[in-house]
Amino acid sequence: MAATRVRFCLALLMLVASMAAWMMPSAVAGSRPPPNYADALSKCLLFYEGQRSGKLPPTQRVTWRKDSGLIDGQDAGVDLVGGYYDAGDNVKFGFPLAFTGTVLAWSIVEFSAEMGPELVHAHEALRWLTDYLLKATTQPNRVFVQSGEPFSDHSCWQRPEDMDTPRPSFQVNDTHPGSEVAGETAAALAAASIVFRSSDPAYADTLLSRAKQVTQSILVLEIYQGSYAESIGQWVCPFYCDISGYEDELVWGAAWLNRATNSSDYMEHIIHGIQQIQTQTKLRVNGYDWQFSWDNKDAGSYILLLLMQKTDDDYSRYAQNFACSLLPQSPYKSTEYTPGGLIHKASMANLQAVTALSFLLVVYGRHLSSVNGIVTCGNSQFPPSALIDLAKSQVDYILGDNPLNMSYMVGYGNKFPQRIHHRAASVPSVDQHPQHLWCKDGTPYYVTDAPNPNLLVGALSGGPNDGSDDYLDYRPWANQSEPATYMNAPFVGLLAYFSRYG
């Protein structure tokens, strides 16, 4: 009888404890520390050193990474050593790589004053990329757009230091057009020339000259226009197949050249490209599903053109439509949000959309503040602060202000993804395992539930992607767990801004 009473009391205590735990939120209001944007910025830039390909410099801070990809370009008689692996694989895809460069440069152009001591690391991250783009564009009317055969690469789980899969070099040229990747490459080179104009004018001149050279073939010589999804699509699709068409990249590249040259020399191409886009979409209709990504530059182009003080009212109208499509209280909102408040735009690596769109919100919001403007959505009006606040909510969500109380940046906060979909991070480093690991030798590290042995600090995982706030820290689930260079690029600018004004 006594034993029964003891068991009953223990059960009651356990029930009370479980109820208390159920009733108590995982992080009570006010208990979550405020975001440390400066720390996150430092980590966000450090991530790029973990993505480096090529001969690593003595200043390399991610020391568990070693030299890799040292024969890239040899098959074509060119030097394509360097650059970045785009995500968790070991291929250098030129299209997302160039977009990374353009947006990283834009982050620096807009927010260099807010970067403080991290500005030098931002310059280093960008220069590692543009040095590679210069190698890829050495020959006239030819752009090398990929290093590595993607299908064999994706069939292996192997450190980049051990790569023994084929490393063919793919190019677009006068017989194999690739206007989207060439346009994005020109944009990256032109945008980067602005970044380096004051610190290294000779290098800036080289970048701008090369941007003009690349643009000459795709804008002036229209016979070279066409999509690389058709000319070399068997090697770039389905990985980075262009879906939105190449006209947006032609506008984007021309706009950056206008900004870099402080001229309107490319205005004719911009107007023509916008007309082409308008025949394919319904940009004038409120509620249009605006995008900004490595595939679609529409929203970015209009905001960039607006910043350049163009007088065409369409730029302002389209920029407002973009904001109206995102603002939660807008009657023209076309954007879904998770219950916890995260933008939901993509079923694969959703945070790429979140960081890119949030970056544009801040850039546009700052512009509106400078001209005392507002956003008008039908009968509703919103101050610039509404755009900034929305972007801040997205940044804070990524850094841990979410239902899971989890940071989606590796190495930031007390709780973050431990099993990102990333070969180099998940396989023991050369320091830990000096022996060569062949194609399938990394498979046990891919399937294990153990955390990654190498911390890829600053990497953003893909984040929640199904419209809920759920996240599975599971390496094979690449849709949620894979990082990418183009997710971090706009986040650099956001973190710089909020480190000063957050």
TrEMBL record:
GO terms for biological process: cellulose catabolic process. Keywords: Carbohydrate metabolism, Cellulose degradation, Glycosidase, Hydrolase, Polysaccharide degradation, Signal. The keyword Hydrolase applies. This is Endoglucanase. It comes from Musa balbisiana. The keyword Hydrolase applies. InterPro entries: 6-hairpin_glycosidase_sf, 6hp_glycosidase-like_sf, Glyco_hydro_9, Glyco_hydro_9_His_AS. Coiled coil: none annotated. GO terms for molecular function: cellulase activity. Residues 37-495 form the Glycoside hydrolase family domain. It catalyses: Endohydrolysis of (1->4)-beta-D-glucosidic linkages in cellulose, lichenin and cereal beta-D-glucans.
